[in-house]
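**User:**
My hope is that you can spare some time for a protein that puzzles me. This is the protein in question:
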Amino acid sequence: MKLYTYWRSTSSYRVRIGLALKNIEVEHCHVHLVRNGGEQKADSYRAINPQGRVPALALDDGTVLTQSPAILEYLEEAYPDPNLLPSDPVKRAKLRSVAAIIGCDIHPLHNVGPPNHLRKEFGRSEADVGSWISTWLGQGFAAIETMIGDDGFCFGAEPSLADVYLVPQLYAARRFDVPLAGYPRIVRVERIAAEHPAFRKAHPSRQPDAE
């Protein structure tokens, strides 16, 4: 399999964590999102992912999967050991709620497109853009802080899909200087994940294309 990825992309980071937790080795193909106007916009990459985004996972038979939630669901179904979702349907739903807050409500608003649109179309300053990002990150984190447990990872001693989403979002929060003092449970998860080999392996700073 091949993973089309960019070191600082939080959605790519999610998939790298999922792969590492399941001990799946893939070939990494690096797509630079800034160089030459963005390599994701090139026709050669659009032929792989028509949306022109990362990540994309090319399976051994040539099938290409896009969008990190779909890729992670595929990995969970095709490689169920270890499980990232509990068997109990209520627990699965609670865990997916945390993932959805990040994947649906927080991340889309600080991804490359919206901040650039604020800058170019509305003439907003970097301070305005930073306030935009902090607002949506803060609202999402405030909810998640009430939803996760007091010990271990988000929902217990072992990492789950919720942690796969949360840890990259914390990386983004620190990148954008979002205050985290009000989220001790979330910061605890980040601290525990930093000691876990799969999370360390997937960290942006450890990627070959890191700058």
